[in-house]
Amino acid sequence: MSVVGIDTNIELGTPSASGPDEISRRLEAMPATGYVWRLVILLSLAGCFEIYDLFLTGYIAPGLSRSGLLSTTTQAFFGFSGIGAFVAATFAGLFVGTFFLGFLADRFGRRPIFTYALLGYTAASVIMACQTSSEGLLFWRFLAGIGIGIEVITIDAYITELVPSRMRGRAFAINQAIMFIAVPVVAFLAWWLVPLAPYGVEGWRWVVLTGAAASMIIWVLRLFLPESPLWLARHGRSEEAFRILATLEARSGGTSPPASAALARPATQAVARVNFADLFRPPYVSLVILFMVFNLCQAFGFYGFANWVPTLLVEKGITVTKSLQYSFIVAFAYPISPLLAASFADRFERRWIIAGACIAIIIFGMAFAQLTEPVLLIVCGVLLTACNTTMSYAYHAYQTEVFPTQIRTQASGLVYSMSRLSATFSGFIVAYMLKEAGVIGVFGLITAAMLIVVIAMTLFGPNVRGKALDTV
Fold this sequence. Notes:
Structural class: mainly alpha
C-alpha cells in the first residue's frame, strides 16, 4: 500500500489494472472542461453555507456580548460565559464531527453525507438562534459544529476524487474562493443587523437565521452531483462507477471505452484494504503525525485572527459599529485572494505555498498588532486574510490527496480534527492573551504557531504536484 509522495512500484493503467486503477487512470486523463469546473462550482456553492455558519462566530460576537448572553473576557481561564466559550463550543463540535464521524462519507458515500450533514447543522443553528441562555446557546452551537465538521472533510474528498491532479490546486483555490463569498455576506449582515433589533428580535439572531434559510438550496444543488466513481469502485459497485465515469468523460468531451468492456477487464490484482489502525503504521504514520502537528498549529493563525477580527478592533479602541464595518471590508479578501492564488496553485508544491503563506502571516500579523490608523489596519487585515486563505486552499487539497480513497475522509478527518481541537482551546487562550497582553500578545501566540508550521512543512512535507491519486 502506498500514498502520494511515497514511492511505489504499482503503475496505474497497466493491462492488469483493477477497477479502481482503471477509473483513476481515466479520471486523470479527463480534460479540464467546463463540465468538470461546473461540478467544482456546485460543490463549492454547497460549501458556502458551511463557511457562513462557521464564520458567523466572530461576526456576531459583539452582538452576543451586547445582548448580555456572553462577555468578551472572563475572570476564569475556562469561563463558560464568554465569547471564548462560544468559539470553543463551535470547534469542539467540529472536532467530534471530523475525528469520530469522518468515517461516514467513507462508508455511505460522498454525495449523501455532504447533503445530510448540511441539513443537520442548519437545524441546530435555527434552534440556537432561539436560545435565551448561555448554556442553551453553547449546546446547540456544539451540535451545529458537529455537522460542519462532517461537511468540510466530505467536500474536500469529493473534489479530490473528481478532479485530475494537474488542476487540483486550481480547483481547490476556486472552491475556497466561492465558499469564502459567504464571509463578506455574513460580515455585511452582521454590520447591518447586529447593532439593530428588527421586529424586536436581536440582530445576531437574524444573521444566524438568514444563513439557515438560504442553505435549503442544497436540496436543488445535490441533484446535479454524481457520486464519486472511485468511492463506488472501492465498495464493489463497479457497474455504477463506470457508468458515472462514462458520463463524466462524455460531458467533458472525451472518449471512453464502453462500460461493458471496462467491466469485463479481469482484476488480476487483489485490492488491498486499508483499515483505520493502518494509519498508525508505516507508510502512513509519518503523514498522520506531520498533518496532526500542522493542524494543531495552523488553527491559531487562521482562527486566532478570523474569529476575533471585530473583537480585536474593539480592543484597539474602535467602536462596535466601526469594527464591524472594517471587518466587512477585510472580509472581501476571503473570496478574492484564492482567485489570485489559482494562478500559481499548480506551479509549486503545496508545502512551499503553505510555508510562504505562514511567513507572510507572521509579518502582517505583527504589523496589525502595532498599528492604530484605521486605513493601515484595514490594509494589514486584508493582507493577513489573503495569506490565511492561501494557506487554507493549499492544505485542504494537500491533506486529502495523500491518503487512499477508501479511507480518505476518515484519515483527513483524523488529522483535520487536530485543528478543531486546537481551535477549541484557542478561543480560551486568545481571550486570556487578549486580557493579559493585549492584541500584541495574541499575535505573538500566532507567530509561534506559524513558525512550527513552516519548519514542519519545509522539512517533512511530501511532494504531491502532478501525481495521480493512489487507489491501490
